[in-house]
Design a protein that fits this description.
- This protein is an alpha/beta fold.
- It folds into two domains: 213 residues, P-loop containing nucleotide triphosphate hydrolases (Rossmann fold, 3-Layer(aba) Sandwich); 62 residues.
- The protein has 13 helices and eight strands.
- An eight-stranded mixed sheet has the order 3-4-2-5-1-6-7-8, with helices on both faces.
- Strand 3 and strand 4 form a beta hairpin.
- The longest helix has 35 residues.
- The protein is elongated, with a radius of gyration of 24 Å.
- The chain starts with a helix and ends in a 13-residue tail after the last helix.
- Bound molecules: adenosine-5'-diphosphate and magnesium ion.
- Adenosine-5'-diphosphate (ADP) binds next to helix 2 and strand 7.
- Magnesium ion (MG) binds next to helix 2.
Length: 341
Amino acid sequence: MQSLSEFLEEHPDLRFVFTGGKGGVGKTVSAAVLAYHFARQGKRTLLASLNPVHSLSSLFGQDLSGGQVRPVRGVDGLFAIEVNTEDAVQRYRESVSARIREFLRYADIPVDARPFIDIAMTNPAFEESAMFDKMTDMMLMQSGEYDRIVFDTAAVANAVRLIGLSKIYGLWLGRLIESRKEALSLRVQLSFRKDKVLEEVQRDPMMADLIAMSQRFDRVKGLLVDPAITAFFFVTLPLSLPISVVKRFIEMVRAYDIPVGGVLVNEVITHESLGETPDEYLRNKFAEQGAYLQTIQNDLGPLVRAYLPLYPREVVGLEAVERVAEDMFRPSQDLAAELPA
Ligand SMILES: Nc1ncnc2c1ncn2[C@@H]1O[C@H](COP(=O)(O)OP(=O)(O)O)[C@@H](O)[C@H]1O
Ligand SMILES: [Mg+2]
């Protein structure tokens, strides 16, 4: 197996890192530990939480809320942001409704824009689209300020679906741009004052907007499918459901050519987690774990990058993050040596 350290050494130009997996498996912890590791290596790193409910503040034991980028105290070069979902949705809502109004106006469709706007807003994926838009912003605008951005987002599946949609979206945008061009050239041909109209046409705000949107999409897609720049890490536990979720996610991202960095296996019961006198619950969990570790080995083997032990308590505070980082980045991850016989 290629360890996480080896993988990262082979990908020195990585800029965008994502963690995905079922709820509660340790995505936020993994994202934080990866970000911590990059910062410790001297990379200026932004850890961005794009979840409806944030947990970076409690994880680092310091206030990182407020929707602004904040330095993480105690780690040079590490910054964090808990993106405010409501703000992102609000801003996206405004830009989408402005676009719809503008489109209807320019296309000379004399109808009330409100029902169209309502349809766009009640789309069940609207919130995810807003977060995706925010992520796009960060990837395109803030990437100059940071060497690495680690995204902690529960909505990986949604992000991936949106990337898939972007193909259709791209076609649609291309078509819109074409018809806009046709309409404008017709206007030039039919006008008496061609020079004046041509000048106006060249300043056409809708055309500029459409082209900008389409370029933005192409740029972010180009970044997301580049294995030198982007890596998705999937976190699982040695349990049935989290394993199936990871397998499904891997198939999904691969279908969209998004590079998989690997799989992190969390909460593995080791000698240390069992302790001197393990209780029955832990002993039973341990007995179960063997079969699941075998499944992981069989189905995901070459993708496994690290095993993390089950700690006696939650991962809270900088010291705990450091401890996990040590386990995640041990040069050779020899799980067998850790497992109780
Ligand atoms: N290896 C571990 N040992 C003990 N507790 C862990 C471990 N990994 C994660 N946790 C705890 O499990 C909970 C869920 O982790 P979190 O990273 O928030 O999951 P997710 O982001 O996938 O929902 C947190 O309370 C975290 O501290
Ligand atoms: Mg989380």
